């Protein structure tokens, strides 16, 4: 796999090729990665896969016309041919008044911040096999588990290099490790499936594989023999492993390209309260060893912690240079490689009560642990998704439920949510347990 210096050298060569081919400006992202994945099922080795590759994504500008092209070739002759094709494509593209590189005076200068994203460790296929086997065996050992979809473990390393024709060039390296298990419980025709996993940057921080496996088994067994639920309006409580999906919908709604196109249900809400008082949504690209930490954005701009929502008030859009120009604003350091925008490590904060307190006054409700499908209208905020979970009866989580749909509108859901105080940082997007009253449940 390429080193950081090698990736930077190739990136600069690609920029030089683009300028030689006639591009007025260009940027290039080179991503080199190496990974090993091992899976076991029913105690037997099922698959071992190892991959190593590189992706070169070149974007060129000819005046206000642009084109993007990608390749996996690194030879100088390949760069020349790639650049010539990209420039020819750009010259045939329609003009875009918002196209262009990020402002030169906004680029990151100096060394990128060190974020401890790479532990320089390794894991052999044998170690990964043993890790996967421990996870699956622990899951299958849970009483009531009747079948398995397997255990898996992986290890990876990635180098990211970015260079632009107006003076930016930097690279960073990350490592990654994961372990998971997925099993079934119940009798034929009535089986229920569930899983557990953990992903980290540093191998030493990975949860014990046996703990992950037991969690998967216990989750599957708890879902056996789901009951029917009558349709109606009732409180919904989202478990943290699905509550973060609501934050993801919010991030999609504040993405600059959608705001510029006027296709977001939050397009008129900047500066307005969209969450309850005291609740915040925070983006922290500098979190040490964070799953989505990064020292610069996809255009070479510096990144910094950002309050997307503060005290319930929407404070900013997520802007790349193109959407910022279209909106008459400044880019926010949220450009994604290859176009568009992306946030980094995001979490919802501001909960002050234990999860049990959220539930104790609910006579009839649903505790949602799984969501199915993607029934969200980004323009209107209408929300409708299949769900699994448990009944809440007289303030207690009781029987499992399945084959239901929960529905509402995200504007109303955001305004009416109550977060608990059980926030943990396990994913790229994190949220505590969330309660939302008055959602519609379609059941029996």
Reconstruct the topology from this structure.
Layout: H1 4-20, E1 25-41, E2 44-62, E3 65-71, H2 76-92, H3 125-140, E4 145-164, E5 169-185, E6 192-200, H4 209-222, E7 232-238, H5 240-253, H6 256-261, E8 280-283, E9 306-310, E10 313-314, H7 321-327, E11 346-349, H8 355-359, E12 364-372, E13 382-393, E14 396-409, H9 410-416, E15 417-419, E16 429-430, E17 434-442
Parallel strand pairs: 7-12, 11-16
Antiparallel strand pairs: 1-2, 1-4, 2-3, 4-5, 5-6, 7-17, 8-9, 8-11, 9-10, 12-13, 13-14, 14-17, 15-17
Strand tally: 17
From the alpha carbons, calculate the radius of gyration and give it in angstroms: 24 Å
Helix proportion: 10-25%
CA(first)-CA(last) distance:
54 Å
Could you report the average pLDDT, rounded to the nearest whole number?
Answer: 96
Major pleated sheet: 6 strands, antiparallel
Shape: globular
- Percentage of residues in strands: 35-45%
InterPro entries: Metalloprtase-TldD/E_C, Metalloprtase-TldD/E_cen_dom, Metalloprtase-TldD/E_N, PmbA, TldD/PmbA_N, TldD/PmbA_sf
Organism: Sphingomonas japonica
Protein name: PmbA protein
Family: Belongs to the peptidase U62 family.
Could you describe the 3D structure shown?
This protein has 444 residues and is α+β, with helices and mostly antiparallel strands. It has 2 domains: 4-222, PmbA/TldD fold (2-Layer Sandwich); 226-444, no CATH class. The protein has 9 helices and 17 strands. It has helices spanning 4-20, 76-92, 125-140, 209-222, 240-253, 256-261, 321-327, 355-359, 410-416; strands at residues 25-41, 44-62, 65-71, 145-164, 169-185, 192-200, 232-238, 280-283, 306-310, 313-314, 346-349, 364-372, 382-393, 396-409, 417-419, 429-430, 434-442. The strands form 3 sheets. The chain has a 6-stranded antiparallel sheet with strand order 3-2-1-4-5-6. A hairpin with a 2-residue loop joins strand 2 and strand 3. It is globular. The mean pLDDT is 96.
